[in-house]
Amino acid sequence: MERNLKELISKMTLEEKAGMCSGLDFWHLKNVERLGIPSVMVSDGPHGLRKQDDKGDHLGINDSIKAVCFPPACLSACSFDRELMTELGETIGREAQATDVSVVLGPAVNIKRSPLCGRNFEYYSEDPYLAGETAAAFINGVQSQHVGTSIKHFAANNQEYNRMSNSSEADERTLREIYFPAFETAVKKSRPYTVMCSYNRVNGVYASENPWLLTDVLRGEWGFEGYVMSDWGAVNERVPALKAGLELEMPTSGGAGDQEIIKAVKDGTLDEAVLDRAVERILRISFKWLDNRKEQPFTMEEDHEFARHTAEQSMVLLKNENVLPLKTDEKVAFIGGFAKKPRFQGGGSSHINSFRVSSALDAVSRMEEISGNVTYAEGFAADKDVYDETLAAEAVEAAKNADKAVIFAGLPDSFESEGYDRAHMGLPQCQNRLIAEILKVQPNTIVVLHNGSPVEMPWLADVKGLLEAYLGGQAVGEAEVSLLYGKVNPSGKLAETIPLKLSDNPSYLNFGEGEKTVYHEGVFVGYRYYDTKEMPVAFPFGYGLSYTTFAYSNLKLDKDELTEKDTLTVSVDVTNTGNVPGKEIVQLYVRDNSGACRRPDKELKGYEKVALEPGETKTVTMTLDHRSFAWYNTDMKDWYSASGTYDILIGASSRDIRLTSAVQMKSSVKPPLKLHLNTTLGELLSDERTMEYGKYLADKMTSFFGGSSDEASEAITDEMNAAMATSMPIRNVFSFGACSKEEVLEGLNKLIEAQK
């Protein structure tokens, strides 16, 4: 339906317009009945709807409707599967239509800077490319059903401690390369209806009132056309936030924010046109949903099956020393409270009131060929860290009498949640202790982990199997049993590095401060740090095993040289060399050998998931553009790829590179020259535009310092002269008397004029 929104807004009173910029209550926007503007509802929903019937509380204390809990982002991102994520979005979009929800509050794409962040279970990855591609696919799926999304939390929301006021202190290159790209990719590829700003400050300015974030970057550079809403309670000052580009304050402010807007318009400190623009942006999105309303059944049973399928395609097999898959006739002991009461989602605002939860024991009980051969011992409770001698003894005995033991371990709800950060990276000590005891009597031990973020594993070398189930959604048990018994071949890979210990993390000494958190590690986050430093890790980014094997061959690039205006097509053949069908995730990394700036050893720039029958070969093709090679040059205020050689790396993980080729970049763009008297001779010599002048000055200095005796030659070597010249400022040429100041300034000014 065509509407003239400007005409509609012209009929609204100032009070009505101000009212549209804040919530009616916890989950609804305000209506204007006399003008036919109805109230619409938004709801949490990155991995399932959390629609509350009555009074809201944001953190889930009041009951929400029965719904389907799909695997949270910490697991679904491990699928590396754009099609699956689109289908997940479509499913949640249909559920939103069935329950009259206009905007789903998600996905959450903040980077996993530290394993301690309490909300990591809700975030996709430590890698901005993977997070962005995953988010874009999910958003496209949801919005194909004419339901909006609210990508969050913009920006640099990487800890829960003091999240309402803490300032994330990061340089622009770090923000542009690590913390912005997931949002940028999603905005450009999937055009989310809304963006949710974060609570925190960014370099001292609240995200909610940061015009650089909300207007200059989000709208001006990326072309965002929807409206920006606040996280619940994230608005610091209402009028500055509106001016900065935050249209909707959530939840209701009880009229306080509205009155501030009204007062500012009346006293002339807020242009009413800014308010009109905000209202138009909000109404455009609300009517987009209203005009596409359709009756939709809430197909919870079908959606439960899709939740199972998503979990099966995402869980990651980390270790398998010939103990998996389990055989139906083996005697297997299931041990641990999580086998009966799995932890399948995180705590806080995204907590789903699941209509059904299937544990591993539930799944086994429905499988006649297996159920008679599986015994269960609790061993430890799923919700606390208490070593019970009786329960432990029963578990050890059960393991001893079985052919194999499967220990269902993980983090209790109290260990990680929205609202606070983890205190450490360890599992409950009762679990580590029992695993150690079981390993004494049962060498064929497998551990299944239920956790929203990495854990330290002191027993890793001694277990023969390890399945990372993360938080698997409500069908977690069915998915685990399907994978353990080989009914489904594991195909997930890690969307984050699992370090050996917490102190290995690059943010270890700079995480969790209260007033300011300085991102000293810069762009070296996750595998960018671990791989560049060549540091041992428990499991690298992109790693995951299968019950079959894959071979890579025939890597081809469609050109040997390119400019920043070109794209590069990369193809590689992948063959299933095993005996069972499987899926492989082919990863493409780029390494910059130009030496133009300090960069990570490699960066993910492409991936594809491919299904292969035994013996089958398929060709995987990926396309790289300028951004695939570029870094953010703060002097240019733009993305820049320097001339030089770039390696194209094809791998099964960031540490398992199977094939390598190279391409030459011939950049036609040059960073601006920063020439002044403290520019070094080395800087002059490294740039073709100033190289000749650099050589001239270097020769002057060499002549001036040249040795005239054997003693001088021993004291001042050619290497020393070269090193000193490289790091010597231009001003030293005349301060040492090798040249006159006038001559140096004349040459410098000619170079500066030539760049204009």
Automatic annotation (TrEMBL):
* Superkingdom classification of source: Bacteria
Q: Keywords of this protein's UniProt record, alphabetized? A: Hydrolase
Q: Which residues are in the Fibronectin type III-like domain?
A: 584-654
Instruction: Output one GO MF annotation.
Output: beta-glucosidase activity
Question: Which N-terminal stretch is annotated as signal sequence?
Answer: none
Q: Quick check: keyword Ribosomal protein in the entry? A: no
Q: Which Gene3D superfamilies match?
A: Glycoside hydrolase family 3 C-terminal domain, Glycoside hydrolase, family 3, N-terminal domain, Immunoglobulins
Which one GO biological process term can you cite for this protein? carbohydrate metabolic process
The record's family statement is:
Belongs to the glycosyl hydrolase 3 family.
Q: What is this protein called?
A: Glycosyl hydrolase
Q: Which organism is it from?
A: Schaedlerella arabinosiphila
The record lists the lineage as: Bacteria, Bacillati, Bacillota, Clostridia, Lachnospirales
